[in-house]
Amino acid sequence: MLESLLVSTGIVALAEIGDKTQLLALVLAARFRKPWPIVAGIVVATLLNHFIAGVVGNWVAGFFTPAMLHAILAIAFLAVAAWTLIPDKLDEDEASRVRYRGAFITTLITFFIAEMGDKTQIATVMLAAQYDYLLMVVAGTTLGMLIANVPVVLAGNFAADRLPLTLIHRLAAAAFALLGLYAGYQALRLAGIW
After folding, report:
1. DSSP secondary structure letters along 133-173
2. 46: part of which helix (H) or strand (E)?
3. Spatial separation of the C-alpha atoms in residues 41 and 85, rounded to whole Å
4. Which residues cross the membrane (predicted)?
């Protein structure tokens, strides 16, 4: 149970560094200069988004044998490892969503939308499919988002400019790749091949 929390936290915290939602957190911090409503919006948006992703992951896991599920997870984790090496950029449409609705509501809406189809949401689906503890996975992925985004909100541009993003992206990619290799090993073991 603790493993699902810790792995989910670590994977998402690393994957989120330099992600578009982290860039969005920076834009929101610069726009509103009210860190706590922004942090609260991040928490609520992430909990909602990742809970939905986790439920999907648990649901999808029920359709496959354990060996097939691990084979699918292996491929998915390796694909996300490669995706993690591609830096995100905040596009004009997402930046323009920062309007005059108040820090909390704007953060809630923009974070929820920005997280749709994002690598951390996909990772949440995969982690929920891999682990039996949905709430621990969602708590871990949410904590990972907060570990990566709260310092950006609080410190603004200072922290974002000084982080070794290339190294962090490589570490996140390596973590996803290790999960992929482990899932591949489990698939082979469960299929009786290894």
Report:
1. -HHHHHHHHHHHHHHHHHHHHHHTHHHHHHS-HHHHHHHHH
2. helix 35-61
3. 27
4. 38-61, 67-86, 98-114, 134-155, 167-185
Q: Residue 19: helix, strand or coil by DSSP?
A: coil
Helix, strand, coil % over all residues of the chain, rounded to 5: 80, 0, 20
User: What are the tens digits of pLDDT across the range 161-187?
Assistant: 565 667 766 777 787 788 789 888 988
Do the beta carbons of residue 22 and residue 16 sit within 8 Å?
yes
- What six digits make up the tokens of 37? 């409503």
Sign of torsion over alpha carbons 31, 14, 45, 96? positive
Beta carbons within 10 angstroms of residue 117's beta carbon:
8
141 neighbors 127 (Cβ within 8 angstroms): yes
Residue 15 tokens, joined: 């994957």
Q: How far is residue 63's CA from residue 61's CA, in Å, rounded to a whole number?
A: 5
Quick: pLDDT tens for 20-77: 788 788 878 877 878 999 999 999 999 999 999 999 999 988 898 888 888 988 898 7
Q: Which residues, at least 6 apart from 100, have a Cβ–Cβ distance to it below 8 Å?
A: none
The 8-class DSSP code of residue 191 comes to T
Residues 14 and 172: beta-carbon distance below 8 Å: yes
Kindly report the pTM of this predicted structure.
Answer: 0.75
